[in-house]
Amino acid sequence: MTAPATNDLWGQLRTLGTHLTPELIQTTTELMTPLAARVGPDIVVHRDVAYGPDARHRLDVFVPAVGVMRAPVVVFVHGGGFVRGDKGAPDAPFYNNVGTWAARSGFIGVTMTYRLAPAATWPAGSEDVGAAVRFLRGSVGQWGGDPNGVILMGQSAGAVHVAGYVSMSRLHPAANAGIAGAAMFSGVYDVVRADRNPFQAAYYGDDATRWSEQSTLAQLAEAKLPCFYTVSELDPPDFQRQAAWLVEAHAARQGRWPRMLQLTGHNHISPVLLIGSAMDALGPELLRFIRSVRD
Amino acid sequence: MTAPATNDLWGQLRTLGTHLTPELIQTTTELMTPLAARVGPDIVVHRDVAYGPDARHRLDVFVPAVGVMRAPVVVFVHGGGFVRGDKGAPDAPFYNNVGTWAARSGFIGVTMTYRLAPAATWPAGSEDVGAAVRFLRGSVGQWGGDPNGVILMGQSAGAVHVAGYVSMSRLHPAANAGIAGAAMFSGVYDVVRADRNPFQAAYYGDDATRWSEQSTLAQLAEAKLPCFYTVSELDPPDFQRQAAWLVEAHAARQGRWPRMLQLTGHNHISPVLLIGSAMDALGPELLRFIRSVRD
Q1: d(CA A251, CA A240)
Q2: Which one of A105, A119, A212, B62 is most buried, by most CB atoms within 10 A?
Q3: Are A186 and A237 in contact (CB under 8 A)?
């Protein structure tokens, strides 16, 4: 399709609605592609670095060409309903845009893949996030990253895997999960109350007696780790409820909201696709969050 | 006290904490006073216009000196724990700043007072908001305002009075409450689950059997009227829980959040005091909201 005028972008997103159909995903991606932040000569990218034995245990590292020292390390975990998704090939717009944005912000950017359901079931995704954290804590210094400055970010299923990692202390290499902060965009935190769908069944299984232990809501509600969440105005109802349950539980437990950004005009996938672009609403708030956890 | 450098403003607000002490209120007000938007020759103010028989049934009308036609009418309802507060004398910084901001945005700005507890108890505040709406629908055309373009805004107890007005159809002069939208900053919506305190007791009384009908949560959760809410990072726990309950009920009822802005770095009273100033985080989002309801 032809790229539309950007001043019509928000109207077109609104017209697509909230239901996560293949059409919504494809059209949103096509709308965002011309706007995507692209790698340039200012960034050195190390591709397909192995952080574990599986073919999906790979990550790309985005380093400012001018070099950095003890820089925050921003790790992005993609979505895809537990069963698909990728960090993106070298010439793909997404999610090279996220690594590019991170490096242009003076950070080490990392985009990672992980094992997928149904072959790899709960908690494989969070275990893989943990493996990547351990790898980066041991190796990111060579690129100028701060081993204690890892900040995890994930969207949708990626947010679930980040949440699971934060919630499972057995996966942690150090106190506070061994990271400086975590950002979760349009995630699912309460599996018990979640809408049932084939994607969640593929990852969590059908055993309702396990949904409580597979939930992260209670742990996130009492977490002292700095966390940043988003919900999109055009997120499907299940994700809107999940975000509401999270702030409700957090306020009940800690007397305050976690950082929660409601992204007006955005749908489930658009905020991350626009990170680093001229129409980016999420990146500036992430910079503010990252600065706050690095103080 | 001497006005501090503004670059230290956020640190000082954070140091004040979240507990609504007289010191927090006084110090926050003093910190904001040098920054307050002030009426200038670009604005004509009509003071103490009567909208009812009580001495507190008064409002100030801020009109752009260049004149407007069928402009939105932005009405601000002050806070003060139900028992105090005022729209502000002509030379006061607050809340002339809100009327000034509205007029400079091309709107008719209105700041209003209402009867106070314990002399005037529930639902006197919402009745007074309704009386002001009826008055403005009949009279605001003379200043260039759109009778169908009233947007109510309230903070704390003022948010409670706006919420009560929106929730009580017997107070409405027309469909959709006779207004175009409502904005509520750091309000209380569920009286049953609210922390007990003398301010609420003065307005609602001590009869627990009435707290359910005095609550507005259920009505707001199903309201079709465009509403905009805020919660401040440094709001006291009760207000944080109220905001969480609101989004939870709204998402449960409508499958989506209402517009909810979390104001980072702000306390219970600071966002409104900074409306129209160079450090205003709330005003730009209100403009976006007002534009959206006027489309």
Answers
A1: 17
A2: B62
A3: no
A261 in B contact zone (CB under 8 Å) = yes
- Search chain A and give the residue with CA nearest B252: A241
Which residues, including other chains, have CB under 8 Å from residue A279's CB and lie 6 or more apart?
Answer: A6, A9, A35
Model's pTM, two decimal places? 0.95
Q: Which of A236, A255, A264 sits opposite B237 (nearest CB)?
A: A255
Smallest CA-to-CA distance from A238 within A17, A15, A28, A19 is with: A19
Dihedral sign of CA atoms B245, B247, B250, B254 in order: negative
CA-based max dimension of chain B: 52
Determine the Cα–Cα distance for residues B198 and B175; give it in Å rounded to an integer: 35
Give the C-alpha separation, A179 to A187, whole Å. Answer: 19
The pLDDT tens digits of the residues spanning A52-63 come to 999 999 999 999
**CA of B278, closest CA in chain A: separation in Å?**
19
How far is B232 from chain A, CA to nearest CA, in Å? 9
Rounded Cα–Cα distance for residues B105 and B49 (Å): 22
Residue linked to tokens 């275990």: A127
Q: Which of B247, B262, B290 is the best residue to mutate to test the A interface, defined by the most A CB atoms within 10 Å of its own CB?
A: B247
The half-sphere exposure of B253 on its side-chain side, counting CA atoms within 13 A, is 15
* ipTM entry: 0.94
pLDDT tens digit string along B234-244?
999 999 999 99
d(CA A174, CA A193): 31
The tens digit of pLDDT for each residue in A208-243 reads 999 999 999 999 999 999 999 999 999 999 999 999
Q: How many CB atoms lie within 10 A of CB B86?
A: 15
For chain B, the residue count is 295
The owner of tokens 């698909």 is A84
Place of tokens 């700005």: B109
